[in-house]
Amino acid sequence: WFQRRKRKDKDKPLWFIFQKNRHATYDECSKATHMIMKQAGIKDNPPVTSIRKSSMTKAIDQGANKQQINRFSRHKQGSIIVQTNYDMNLNDTIRQRLAKL
């Protein structure tokens, strides 16, 4: 489906509302993601931020380096943000190790 996008639309973000000719807001993206997850049969419909948190944690577990995580998550200060927002249940020793990614 991504390949079938028209040439004029390829430079626009994926979450673009063509009828209103603007980028989708955070809430609109979240609602669209939840609808897709529901149609895919994913139960519990977790918040989008949980999905992002889980994917970052999995990337760390699989040995992703700091640059890879930054690119994936689009965070500018990857290790600090990971430490502050995504490693809530880990102890200080693990946080220090993750900060050195």
Automatic annotation (TrEMBL):
Q: Where are the transmembrane segments?
A: none
Q: Which UniProt keywords apply?
A: DNA recombination
Q: Name one GO molecular function term.
A: DNA binding
What domain of life does the native source organism fall in?
Answer: Eukaryota
Q: What is this protein called?
A: Tyr recombinase domain-containing protein
Query: Which InterPro entries is this protein grouped with?
Result: DNA_brk_join_enz, Integrase-like_cat_sf
One GO BP annotation of this record? DNA integration
